[in-house]
Design a protein that fits this description.
The chain is an alpha/beta fold. The protein has two domains: 135 residues, Aspartate Aminotransferase, domain 1 (Alpha-Beta Complex), CATH 3.90.1150.10; 254 residues, Type I PLP-dependent aspartate aminotransferase-like (Major domain) (Aspartate Aminotransferase, domain 2, 3-Layer(aba) Sandwich). The protein is built from 13 helices and 13 strands. Pyridoxal-5'-phosphate (PLP) binds next to α4 and α5.
C-alpha cells in the first residue's frame, strides 16, 4: 500500500466522503475548490424534497408557523455550535457583504468620536469596499486605513502598529482568501480591547475548516458565508454573530423581521431583542434549510478532527509541491506554519491561470485561480483524501510536461 492509501485507510473521517454527491460521469475528478463552493451533501436532496415538495408544495403559507419564521435563528444556532457561541447569538441573514455592512455601521455609530476602521491589504477586496461604504454611512470623518501586509514578515506587528485610540473597528478576514494566512483571533482581539476598539471578523474561509471558539478567543462580532466549508450551496445566506452583551449595537437597516413583532404591521415596532434585531426582511427559507446537512456533518465529525486532517492534507501538499514542483517554477505562497494557515494552499506560478485551465480541462482537477499568478487548492477535510493530494501534484506535473499549460495560455474564462 502506498503512503497516501495507508493514510486514507486509517483516516477516521474517510467515510464522510460517501455522504457527498460525486458525479458518476467524472469518477476521477478531484475537487479542490471547496474553499470557494463546497460540495453538495447527499442529505441536501431529502431536505430539498421536504422544503419544496412538502412545506411549500403542500403546507403553503402555513409553513411560517411550522418552522420558517425562526429558520434564520435555528440554523444560526447550529452554526453557533461550531463557533462555541451561546444560543441566540448567531443568525442567518442576506450575504456576507450585507452582514459585514450592518455590523460595521452598528459599531461605527456606537463610537461616533472614533473615525478609523483598520484592515489589511490581504482582506477580501469586497470587504474593504463594504467597510468604505460603512464609513460613508457612519459619518464624514470615518475612513478605512488599509495596512499593507502583503510583504510583511510579521503581519500581526504591521497591523497592530497602526492600531490606536482613533480606531473604532478592526475588521479582518480570519483566513485570507488569497494566501490562506490566518490571524490569531485572541492576539488581535486582546490588542484591540486594550485601546477599546471592536473587532469584526469575517469567518468565510475559516468556519468549518479550523477550530473557532468565540468565547475563549474573545470574539465579539463576526460574519461569514455558508457556501464554502459549510457546504450550504451557491448563494446560501450568510451568518452574523453578535455577542449577547453588545446591546448598544443597532442594525442600521431596520425592517420588519428585525422588529419585536413583525406581524403587528406597525411601522413603529421596536427592534427585536437579541440577534434577531440584525434581521431585515423575509428569510431565504429554501436556501437556509439546505445549510443544515453540511453543518450537522461537521458537528458530527468534530472540529478537532476536521482541523487535524486539514493540517495533514495541506502539509502533505506543501511538502510534495516543494519536492516535485519547485523546479518547474511553482512556489508555495501560503504560510508554512499551520498555526498561521487556513485549509487552502496558494501556489505561485507565472502562468498560473493556464496551469489552472489545463488542470480543469485536461486533468480532472479543479483548483481556482486568483490573479495575477496564484492557484488556490482548498482541502475540505470531509471529502478530500490523501490520495487526492498525491494525484493532484502528479497531474500538475503532467500538465507542465505534456504541453497542457501552453494550450491554455490564451484563454480567459468569465469566472477565473
Ligand atoms: C472572505 C470573503 N468575504 C466575503 C465574501 C463575499 O461574500 P458574499 O458575496 O456572499 O457577500 C467572500 C466571497 O468569496 C469571501 O471570500
Amino acid at each position: 500500500m502506498n503512503p497516501a492509501s495507508h493514510l486514507d485507510s486509517t483516516d477516521p473521517l474517510a467515510d464522510f466522503r460517501n455522504r457527498f454527491v460525486h458525479s458518476s460521469d467524472e469518477a476521477d475528478l478531484i475537487y479542490l475548490d471547496g474553499n470557494s463552493l463546497g460540495k453538495q451533501p447527499t442529505a441536501v436532496r431529502q431536505v430539498l424534497t421536504q422544503v419544496v415538495d412538502h412545506e411549500w408544495g403542500e403546507r403553503l403559507i402555513r409553513g411560517w408557523n411550522e418552522g420558517w419564521l425562526d429558520i434564520s435563528g435555528s440554523v444560526g444556532d447550529l452554526i453557533g455550535e461550531l463557533l462555541g457561541a451561546q444560543h441566540g447569538e448567531v443568525t442567518l441573514a442576506e450575504n456576507t457583504s450585507v452582514c459585514l455592512y450592518k455590523t460595521a455601521v452598528a459599531v461605527l455609530r456606537s463610537h461616533p468620536q472614533r473615525p478609523t476602521v483598520l484592515t489589511d491589504s490581504e482582506n477580501f477586496p469586497s470587504d474593504i469596499q463594504i467597510l468604505r461604504s460603512a464609513c460613508g454611512s457612519a459619518g464624514s470623518d470615518h475612513h478605512v486605513k488599509v495596512v499593507d501586509t502583503s510583504s510583511a514578515s510579521d503581519p500581526t506587528s504591521a497591523l497592530l502598529d497602526a492600531l490606536d485610540d482613533s480606531t473604532a473597528l478592526v475588521s479582518l478576514s480570519h483566513v485570507s482568501y488569497k494566501t490562506g494566512w490566518r490571524w490569531n483571533l485572541k492576539e488581535i482581539n486582546d490588542a484591540a480591547a486594550k485601546v477599546d476598539a471592536q473587532v469584526l471578523w469575517d469567518f468565510s474561509h475559516s468556519v468549518g475548516a479550523v477550530p473557532i471558539d468565540v468565547q475563549s478567543d474573545g470574539v465579539t462580532l463576526a460574519v461569514g458565508c455558508t457556501y464554502k466549508y459549510l457546504n450550504g450551496g451557491p448563494g446560501a445566506p450568510a451568518f452574523i454573530y453578535v455577542r449577547s452583551d453588545q446591546d448598544d449595537l443597532a442594525n442600521p437597516i431596520t425592517g420588519w423581521f428585525g422588529t419585536a413583532d413583525p406581524f403587528s404591521f406597525d411601522a413603529s415596532s421596536p427592534p427585536a431583542s437579541g440577534i434577531e434585531r440584525f434581521l431585515t426582511g423575509t428569510p431565504h427559507v429554501v436556501s437556509a434549510a439546505l445549510i443544515r446537512p453540511g453543518v450537522e456533518m461537521l458537528l458530527e465529525a468534530g472540529m478537532e478532527r476536521v482541523y487535524e486532517k486539514s493540517v495533514s492534507l495541506s502539509q502533505r501538499f506543501i511538502e510534495l509541491c516543494d519536492e516535485r514542483l519547485s523546479s518547474s517554477g511553482f512556489e508555495v505562497r501560503s504560510p508554512r506554519d499551520p498555526q498561521n494557515r487556513g485549509s487552502h494552499v496558494a501556489l505561485f506560478h507565472p502562468d498560473a491561470q493556464a496551469v489552472g485551465l489545463a488542470l480543469i480541462n485536461e486533468k480532472s482537477v479543479i483548483p481556482d485561480f486568483r490573479p495575477p499568478d496564484l492557484l488556490r487548492f482548498g482541502f475540505a477535510p470531509l471529502y478530500t483524501s490523501f490520495t487526492d493530494v498525491d494525484l493532484t501534484v502528479s497531474r500538475i506535473m503532467e500538465a507542465v510536461e505534456d504541453g497542457g499549460v501552453d494550450r491554455w495560455r490564451n484563454e480567459n474564462p468569465l469566472v477565473p
